[in-house]
Amino acid sequence: MDRHLDVEELLTISEVAQLLRVDATTVRRWVKEGLLEGVRLPRASQRQSYRIKRSTLERLLGEGQK
Fold first, then answer.
1. Global pTM value
2. Nearest by Cα to 8 from 43, 53, 47, 40
3. 10-63 domain in CATH 1.10.10?
4. What span, in angstroms and rounded, lies between the C-alpha atoms of 60 and 64?
5. Are 36 and 50 in contact (CB under 8 A)?
6. Mean pLDDT of residues grouped by 10 in the chain (66 residues)?
7. Which backbone phi and psi does 33 adopt, to 5 degrees?
8. Are 20 and 27 in contact (CB under 8 A)?
9. If 50 and its partner were Cys, which of 38, 41, 44, 60 is the partner (CB 3.0–4.6 Å)?
10. CB atoms within 10 A of CB 36
11. 16-21: long-range contacts, CB 8 A cutoff, minimum separation 24
């Protein structure tokens, strides 16, 4: 039985920064301040890791076009 999971693409902080043409530190700050919704990953190093859902980024970019 083939199960299709509707898994949403998660983008790294660096990928989001590149798409928005800002520094990765800025994206990290937006996530920490709650301006951009991020998914917190289990901590593997001293720095907290986040991922941004593609739909969140698309929604953010779409709001600017209204």
1. 0.75
2. 53
3. no
4. 7
5. no
6. 62 95 96 92 79 91 68
7. -85, -5
8. yes
9. 38
10. 20
11. 16/52, 16/57, 19/57, 20/57
**In this structure, which amino acid lies at residue 53?**
K
Cα torsion 3, 49, 10, 66: sign: positive
Question: How many CA atoms, within 13 angstroms, populate the side-chain half-sphere of residue 1?
Answer: 2
With tokens 């039985």, the residue in question is 1
Residue in the structure block whose two tokens are 């901590």:
43
